Amino acid sequence: MDNSKKITVQIINAFVENEKGGNPAGVVLNATNLSNKKKQAIAKKVGLSETAFVSESKTEDFKLDFFTPTKQIAHCGHATVATFSYLKQIGALTSNNSSKETIDGRRKIKLSNKFAFMEQLAPKYTDISENETAILKSLSITKNDLLPNASIQIVNTGNSFLLIPVKDTSVLKNLTPNFELVNNISGQYDLIGYYVFTTAIDNTKNDATSRMFAPRYGISEEAGTGMAAGPLACYLHDILKVNKTRFLIQQGKFMKTPSTSLIIVDINIKKGKIKNLMAGGEGKLIKEIFITLDEK
């Protein structure tokens, strides 16, 4: 008797630019009856940085659960963008305003054609310059490689990321992370990972280009991270004093196998402070795969 069950997974690239590049996420629809154990098993078999599971919600349009190959996380920007962009494209959403329920609260979603934007919270900053030497060692760089007059900060708009400003694209391109050290520091501060960036870029339409390392979550490097681009936009506005409300963040250009992503972040300013923000981009369906699970 065959006790296996076939699960359909859509592979959708989020944050594509001109229909190319982006960061792939798995999306499983109709996941209400899947246990967390099965979701974790599916995510591990899919093997992407995150897989989103879409379930019924009593309070919002959908409930989303996010799993890396090794554990569940509270939020995932690129998997959210992938999911809602796909739902809009297949006609499961008719309004341009939606919402998601997650394990730690509700988030607004806005849609425009193939673009989906996810709400993030007001930023919280933590200066950890006292640990700068260890952080630099974990990336095999020196203080001279940092952007002058810009501190290393933990920024949280829903998840915590360590933002590290470097002086130019040469430093960013040639980073050689020590993943064991990155993992240890990430665990010490309960980080999703490192978001290393520079504002010294040739493409003047973008505000920064970045790389994201999250070995604590089984991710060596990721092509597009919406939950990190949000904190970066806040950092650019609040720390580097870039006076604008829309930021274009590039990511994935300097990966071993490049997959350039474009993340758009709109910040909402009230009384001189960031109240919340919307981060998003375009999603593109790449393929459909099937995962077989043992029903025992």
Strand order of the largest sheet: 1-2-3-4-6-7-8-17
CATH class value of the largest domain: Alpha Beta
The unreliable regions are none
Proportion of residues in extended strands = 35-45%
Structure classification: alpha+beta
CA radius of gyration: 19 Å
The main sheet comes to: 8 strands, mixed, barrel
Q: What is CATH's topology name of the largest domain?
A: Diaminopimelate Epimerase, Chain A, domain 1
In percent, how helical is the residue content? 10-25%
Which outline best applies? Answer: globular
Number of helices: 6
CA(first)-CA(last) distance: 12 Å
CATH homologous superfamily of the largest domain? Diaminopimelate Epimerase, Chain A, domain 1
The CATH level-2 architecture of the largest domain is identified as Roll
Give the overall average pLDDT: 93
The helix/strand order is: EEHEEEHEEEEHEEHHEEEHEEE
| Number of distinct beta strands | 17
Total domain count? 2
What is this structure, in a nutshell?
Helices cover 20% and strands 41% of the residues. It is an alpha+beta fold and 296 residues long.
Features:
8-stranded mixed β-barrel, 2 domains, 6 helices, 296 residues, globular, alpha+beta, 20% helix, 41% strand, Diaminopimelate Epimerase, Chain A, domain 1
Q: What does this 3D model show about the protein?
A:
This protein is α+β, with helices and mostly antiparallel strands and 296 residues long. It folds into 2 domains: 4-121 and 282-294, Diaminopimelate Epimerase, Chain A, domain 1 (Roll); 124-279, Diaminopimelate Epimerase, Chain A, domain 1 (Roll), CATH 3.10.310.10. Helix content is 20%, strand content 41%. The protein has 6 helices and 17 strands. The protein has helices at 36-46, 77-89, 132-139, 169-173, 179-188, 226-238, and strands at residues 4-16, 23-28, 51-55, 62-67, 72-73, 97-102, 105-112, 115-121, 124-127, 153-156, 160-165, 193-198, 208-214, 219-222, 246-251, 261-270, 273-294. It has an 8-stranded mixed beta barrel with strand order 1-2-3-4-6-7-8-17. A hairpin with a 4-residue loop joins strand 13 and strand 14. Helix 3 (132-139) packs antiparallel against helix 5 (179-188). The protein is globular and about 55 Å long. The termini are close together.
